[in-house]
Amino acid sequence: MYDVYAVREDFPVLKEVVYLDSTATTQTPVPAVEAMVEYFYRYAGNHGRGAHRLARETTNRYEDARETVAHFLNADPSKTVFTKNTTEGINLIANSYPWEAGDHIVTTMLEHHSNLLPWLRLQKKGIDVTVIKPDREGIIDPRMIENALTDRTKLIAVTHISNVFGSVQDVSKITKLARKNGVKILVDGAQSAGHVPVNIKTLGCDFFATAGHKGLLGPQGTGVLYIKDPEVMESASLGGGTVSDVRGHEYTLEPSPTCFEAGTPNIPGVIGLGKAVEYVKKIGISEIEKHEAELSRQAAKRLSELDHVEVYGPENRAGIVPFNVTGLHAHDVALILDQTRKICVRSGHHCAIPVTRFLEVESTVRASFALYNTKEEVDILVKAVDALKALVS
To answer: What does the domain layout of the chain look like in residue ranges?
Structure first.
């Protein structure tokens, strides 16, 4: 039996606000915060750069976190790279893959700017980019992606779950058609890892990028990038810790993942991320998925029944519910909800301007749910939005 009230005890801020902005960043549970505090107080040293006891302890804890995160995603730890966020992971691929002029990339209009702008910038190097449109509910038809492939297509870059619609894409089918056509595929898992089951080996993608501070419940400044064939690339960032030898004008890189983690990493953040992933695993990802889906289903249904509210996205969605209130700007709605009921929601274009324009709106209000939200909070949200009709009637 899923006990959301027991879960909430590990997130003290929830006693102060109704937090419905977990798509932007989730709250971090007490055990993960305590693990970071322990690092600073008991054994703070640098990673992989010393023989003394603090450096050894730091390195061991950091690499233990890598094992924890990799096993949670069913990925090879040696191919699991720590980054500072999803954006850095995607840019690492864009800047490190051996592109050639005339190569072709297929992506979609659904993408967060982080999985769109890096590919559009490659156009300056002679790379062709095709952007596929979704339907009105934010679903990409895999056949449209397949029809866009050419003999020069090198990569498909697609989100797993849209941060605007909450729509879940059929990434397994898209990955299969990529394999069939000899094309590499990158999955943006920023909104899926920690919210729904993710099995990278079963999925079969070439690259999987996600953030530590979203569904995985870790701190900001942490991210994860899986690279199936790391030997194909040389990281655009080199320096301390990435090389095994330098002779004259020549250098030899360390194997993955070390060669992709230049300089001192976010050591306490990664250690905290490892503890946060243990927390998610203990609760159970399938239970979390069901809980969040039920909350978003209720919220979307009840909000759509209000005459002055328009809800976007499919019926079967992840824990994301975008909507607008007729006659009120999304920013005004968010501000009123915060000031009157301490409800924290996001407003704006959500770093996805093309898909917002596709909806023919300037912005939306986005309520997003996590493992710690409750049905009572859905009630509070719906009642507060219902009360806004007095301002627009």
So the answer is: 30-282, 284-391
